[in-house]
Write a structure and sequence with these properties.
Number of domains: 2
Strand order of the largest sheet: 4-3-1-2-9-10
Strand content: 15-25%
Distance between the termini: 36 Å
CATH architecture of the largest domain: 3-Layer(aba) Sandwich
Number of strands: 10
Largest sheet: 6 strands, parallel
Bound molecules: D-glutamic acid
């Protein structure tokens, strides 16, 4: 089974998941798809997400992937059931593993979740957390401004710092001891969050899925990595060279077949 693992997101956020997986399983091969042209997905309807993710899942499965990681909390919240019914390939989502992780980590049973509008309005986190532990206090906050700061590589800009601080103040007023970063773009803000609230326990879904995926990992002697983006490959390449150590020669242009919803 020397086939690659497919990973997708609206854009750059799923790179946090790819990074964690590649670090934990360096002998695996990966194909990453970032739909940078149609990001953000956090404000899309379920119908729009079905169309966009159907196309991406078809593309990745045509590359003979052995498993699929939905590295997007919005898609996990709104269309995960649809995706897993569509393909016979083992498909992994982020929500249940992150909730289990948060429950294992909290000492006070007060958990906050930051996410996109789609994720938060679906209540997927609250439903999953309460199904696993009936007596939690949960705060869910939608943070629609944060993804564009990552997509435009303004992670440490003054505007970004003030927005992140604004949401963290709400988390602190609520008294959460554990914060789920319920959007794969948010781990890019981890250094900032830690500098503002060093005592807050952070749950990065990218780390939460590692143990869930381990039974499916089979080493390959020649691991490869490949990136496909629907937006500008040059700005994607510039982003990965600044934040990661991946070869930019492996970035390819993907042409979406659907008109942009
Ligand atoms: N990174 C995705 C998520 O985890 C999508 C964010 C967006 O494009 O709005 O929800």
């Amino acid at each position: 089974m020397k086939r690659p693992i497919g990973i997708f997101d609206s854009g750059l956020g799923g790179l946090t998941v790819l990074y964690a997986l590649q670090k934990a399983y360096p002998e695996e091969s990966f194909i990453y798809m970032g739909d940078t042209k149609r990001a953000p997905w956090g404000s899309k309807s379920r119908e729009e997400l079905v169309l966009v993710t159907d196309e991406i899942v078809d593309f990745l499965t045509s590359k003979h992937i052995k498993s699929l990681v939905v590295a997007c909390n919005t898609s996990c919240s709104l269309v995960f059931d649809h995706i897993s019914k569509k393909t016979a390939i083992p498909t992994f989502g982020l929500i249940e593993p992150s909730c289990k992780d948060a429950i294992n980590k909290t000492l006070t049973n007060r958990i906050a979740v930051l996410g996109t509008t789609g994720t938060i309005s679906s209540k997927a986190y609250t439903k999953t957390l309460t199904s696993l532990h009936p007596s939690l206090d949960i705060l869910e906050l939608e943070c629609p401004e944060l993804v564009p700061f990552v997509e435009s590589n303004q992670i440490t800009s003054q505007k970004s710092i003030s927005k992140v601080t604004h949401y963290l103040d709400k988390v602190q007023n609520f008294g959460a001891d554990t914060l789920i970063l319920g959007c794969t773009h948010y781990p890019f803000f981890q250094p900032l969050i830690r500098s503002i609230h060093p005592n807050l326990t952070l749950v990065n879904p990218a780390n939460s899925i590692l143990s869930v995926m381990s039974p499916f990992m089979i080493s390959s002697s020649h691991p490869t990595i490949e990136f496909w983006v629907s937006g500008n490959p040059d700005s994607f390449s510039a982003f990965i060279s600044e934040h990661f150590n991946w070869p930019t020669s492996k970035v390819k242009q993907y042409q979406p077949t659907l008109a942009t919803p």
